[in-house]
């Protein structure tokens, strides 16, 4: 279990205002408006989640807040300082762990941390000591002398986060800290994030996982296509979305249509989604109590159910509901009002979308910000 790295806090000379405040924040890349008028207020302390699918604009917002990218419009203040006029002061007090690890693959774990500490002005002895403390705190002592290219994804992620904690920041941005790592490593990263909060750091993290936002964040903003489409506590957002989803897998894919009709008749036809698995369908639940009725209908009609589960709505369902798409929580069958034609969230800007021109207005990273 990781423990909180000993805080090395820099004095806070600013007011007690919010950690982050933006008004109408805009960023364009050529024809693409990546961030389209974002208003945010993140109070100090605790974990604020930024939830959204690929290409939603999460990283772009974070990079503007970390002063790595200049906004094209709107205002943003970080720890009471304007990102345009006070980037150096902001960089002194924040830290950023990017979506993709920024480690030197050929160096060992300890060498990476010592190098980063030296870049931040630590003397050699202090750099070695702090590096060793962080490796210990993150359960990497045994791997200290191993080259990073021989690390697993989870170890890399932990080392990357360790590198942004050489000086305990007042505010840390963690961009998808758990994407692509296994459940055990994910739990370790969650523990690390919680210990940071206990040490007084404000955490702003992005994620594509509803479960992660739900477990960690006290508040969250749901972002889609560059806009905040919902904001509140996880409980408030889930209440908006509905009580969960029923997924049914029939034994014979030929019976899926019949199952969809039967389940739709009980729970609302417009809530039924045919999954890519030809035997599976899922239904956004208007109220949990009707699940047993829907399953009873299937049994009475002789449709053999291989498995079923009732879970939280998926991120897709959250988006479709919040944006008024086909799964919108309405009892009117066939109600397709709202931007229903925009396609599934997964269809928008995947990682492959990103080989585009790097923004001309990139601000070179300095030693103050990792
Ligand atoms: N440097 C860039 N040049 C051109 N377009 C960019 C650049 N960075 C991001 N974009 C575009 O801006 C949009 C938002 O991208 P961003 O990386 O902020 O999304 P994201 O929410 O972080 O997605 P992911 O979950 O995939 O990391 C996408 O359409 C993306 O292709
Ligand atoms: Mg991103």
From TrEMBL:
Question: What is the phylogenetic placement of the source species in the record?
Answer: Bacteria, Bacillati, Actinomycetota, Actinomycetes, Micrococcales
Cellular component aspect of the GO annotation: plasma membrane
Q: Where in the cell is it found?
A: Cell membrane
Any one biological process term the GO annotation gives: response to antibiotic
Q: Does the keyword Transport apply?
A: yes
- What ranges does the record give for the region Disordered, renumbered to this chain? 1-20, 323-370
What species is given as this protein's source? Rothia santali
SUPFAM superfamilies the record matches: P-loop containing nucleoside triphosphate hydrolases
SMART domains referenced in this protein's UniProt entry, alphabetically = AAA
This chain's protein is named ATP-binding cassette domain-containing protein
Q: Which InterPro entries match?
A: AAA+_ATPase (IPR003593), ABC_transporter-like_ATP-bd (IPR003439), ABC_transporter-like_CS (IPR017871), ABC_transporter_ATP-binding (IPR050763), DrrA (IPR005894), DrrA1/2-like_C (IPR025302), P-loop_NTPase (IPR027417)
| Extent of Basic and acidic residues compositional bias | 329-339, 351-370
Domain of life from the UniProt record: Bacteria
**ABC transporter domain location, by residue?**
20-250
- Spell out the molecular function terms from Gene Ontology: ATP binding; ATP hydrolysis activity
Family of the protein in this entry: Belongs to the ABC transporter superfamily. Drug exporter-1 (DrugE1) (TC 3.A.1.105) family.
Query: What UniProt keywords are attached to this protein's entry?
Result: Antibiotic resistance, ATP-binding, Cell membrane, Membrane, Nucleotide-binding, Translocase, Transport
User: What's the protein's topology in the membrane?
Assistant: Peripheral membrane protein
| Major site of localization recorded for this protein | membrane
């Amino acid at each position: 279990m990781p423990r909180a790295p000993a805080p090395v806090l820099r004095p806070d000379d600013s007011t007690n205002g919010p950690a982050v405040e933006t008004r109408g924040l805009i960023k364009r890349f050529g024809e693409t408006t990546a961030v389209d008028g974002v208003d945010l207020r993140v109070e100090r302390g605790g974990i604020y989640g930024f939830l959204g699918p690929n290409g939603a604009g999460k990283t772009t917002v974070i990079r503007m807040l970390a002063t790595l990218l200049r906004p094209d419009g709107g205002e943003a203040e970080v720890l009471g300082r304007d990102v345009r006029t006070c980037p150096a002061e902001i960089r002194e007090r924040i830290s950023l762990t990017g979506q993709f690890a920024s480690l030197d693959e050929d160096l060992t774990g300890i060498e990476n941390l010592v190098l980063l500490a030296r870049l931040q002005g630590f003397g050699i002895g202090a750099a070695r000591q702090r590096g060793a403390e962080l490796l210990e705190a993150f359960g990497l002592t045994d791997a200290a002398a191993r080259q990073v290219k021989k690390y697993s994804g989870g170890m890399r992620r932990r080392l990357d986060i360790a590198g942004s904690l050489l000086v305990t920041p007042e505010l840390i941005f963690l961009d998808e800290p758990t994407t692509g790592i296994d459940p055990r490593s994910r739990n370790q990263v969650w523990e690390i994030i919680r210990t940071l909060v206990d040490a007084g750091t404000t955490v702003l993290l992005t994620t594509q996982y509803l479960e992660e936002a739900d477990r960690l964040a006290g508040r969250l903003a749901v972002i889609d296509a560059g806009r905040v489409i919902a904001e509140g506590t996880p409980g408030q957002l889930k209440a908006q979305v509905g009580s969960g989803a029923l997924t049914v897998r029939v034994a014979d894919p030929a019976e899926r249509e019949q199952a969809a009709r039967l389940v739709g008749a009980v729970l609302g036809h417009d809530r039924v989604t045919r999954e890519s698995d030809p035997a599976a369908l899922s239904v956004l639940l208007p109220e949990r109590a009707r699940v047993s009725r829907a399953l009873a209908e299937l049994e009475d009609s002789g449709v053999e159910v291989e498995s079923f589960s009732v879970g939280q709505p998926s991120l897709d369902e959250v988006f479709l509901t919040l944006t008024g798409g086909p799964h919108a929580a309405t009892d009117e069958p066939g109600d397709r009002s709202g931007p229903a034609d925009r396609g599934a969230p997964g269809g928008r800007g995947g990682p492959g979308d990103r080989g585009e021109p790097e923004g001309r207005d990139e601000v070179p990273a300095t030693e103050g910000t990792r």
